[in-house]
Design goal:
Length: 331
């Protein structure tokens, strides 16, 4: 049983080495290189590949694996939109992903950012760094005084709601499909418009599917309270960022925390420290005192990385043993 893992980062190595030690019957080799038609050759003689990359899994790449007799591919992440499924179907690929690795990682990050904007930590930290230790005018707001509107009560939204309750915030929620527990607690409002009208703070936990594209736009922002706080750690395409910037300019949106950005591929997870951003909008957002930008790091915790490596390697092994892991992608 032989698994070849691509794109292994330094922070993934401890989890991978633990998995190898726990599965001595399996031969595992790995590289930090991404999987492409050229590097596919490294997997020659292996039974399955294990991968994580933004780079597309193209027909050429899948053909290269197919020619080596490999048709088992386990992703260490959720997203499968960069796979050529027509080619995968043609070559009868078994594919798995890791849909749930640690909802707490993203939920915690979103609420940490929410509490940071409410306590104006960006301004306060900048003042302290300049040795200005005065309080005013950097006064904060308390979580328990906020009505927080949670849009999407799936895996991550529900953990965020638990954390918010610990803070004593008044939580209201909206979802197209009601969760029994949230329903029993009577937290749902019937329409998004009701949530927009009542919430002091709005946090998004819905997928970036086409139906949700730019759901936060000039029209929806107009329905929100004046001075609303918005948090988006879900998907960049949920927001029309130009409309959000206009809302920040007018003061309609008091504060904004974003971990995702519609044009983040090629921008996030790159060191721009000695270069100009290719996108002036991100520079503008980062420069604002009332905007917190993190580069899609909500998921990035030791626990999440451990789950992504372990679950995907278990799935690779299951495929080799002729089993269908629970996390197999149905396509
Ligand atoms: N920033 C990060 O690092 C990171 C990491 C993982 C996931 N995410 C994102 O977090 C979001 C939530 O993920 P999850 O695992 O909780 O998903 P999930 O599938 O468990 O829950 C999503 C919920 O949204 C609801 N929903 C969908 N469209 C809706 C709409 N228009 N209005 C109201 N509700 C709607 C669904 O019914 C579902 O209950 C996703 O966008 C995901 O891509 C971000």
């Amino acid at each position: 049983m032989k698994i070849f893992a691509y794109g292994i980062r330094d922070d993934e190595q401890p989890a991978l080495k633990d998995w190898i030690a726990a599965n001595p019957e399996v031969t595992v080799e790995f590289t930090d290189k991404l999987l492409d038609p050229e590097t596919a050759k490294l997997a020659e003689g292996f039974d399955a590949v294990n991968v994580y990359q933004q780079l597309d899994y193209t027909r050429e790449t899948l053909t290269a694996l197919h020619e080596l007799g490999i048709n088992k591919m386990s992703l260490r992440n959720v997203g499968t939109d960069n796979i050529d499924f027509d080619a995968a179907r043609e070559f009868d690929f078994s594919i798995s992903n890791v849909p749930v690795y640690s909802p707490n990682a993203i939920a915690e990050h979103s609420i940490i950012q929410m509490s940071r904007v409410l306590r104006r930590t960006k301004e306060l930290d900048a003042k302290v760094a300049k040795h200005d230790l005065r309080w005013a005018p950097t006064i904060g707001r308390e979580m328990r005084m906020q009505t927080v509107g949670v849009i999407g009560t799936g895996n991550i939204g529900r953990v965020a709601m638990q954390i918010l309750k610990g803070f004593g915030a008044k939580v209201i929620a909206y979802d197209l499909f009601h969760n029994d527990q949230v329903e029993a607690e009577g937290l749902y409002v019937d329409t998004l418009d009701e949530l927009y009208a009542q919430a002091d703070v709005i946090s998004l936990y819905v997928p970036g599917v086409p139906a949700n594209h730019h759901m936060i736009n000039a029209e929806s922002i107009a329905k929100m309270k004046d001075g609303v706080v918005i948090v988006n750690a879900s998907r960049g395409n949920l927001m029309d960022i130009d409309d959000v910037i206009a809302g920040l300019d007018s003061g309609k949106i008091a504060d904004f925390a974003m971990d995702v950005y519609e044009d983040e591929v090629g921008l996030f997870n790159v060191d721009w420290s000695n270069k100009e951003f290719p996108d002036p909008k991100i520079a503008d957002l980062i420069a604002r005192e009332n905007v917190l930008v993190t580069p899609h790091t909500a998921f990035y915790t030791t626990k999440a990385v451990l789950e992504m490596v372990t679950q995907s390697m278990d799935a690779s092994l299951a495929f080799i043993n002729g089993e269908t892991p629970k996390i197999a992608v149905k396509y």
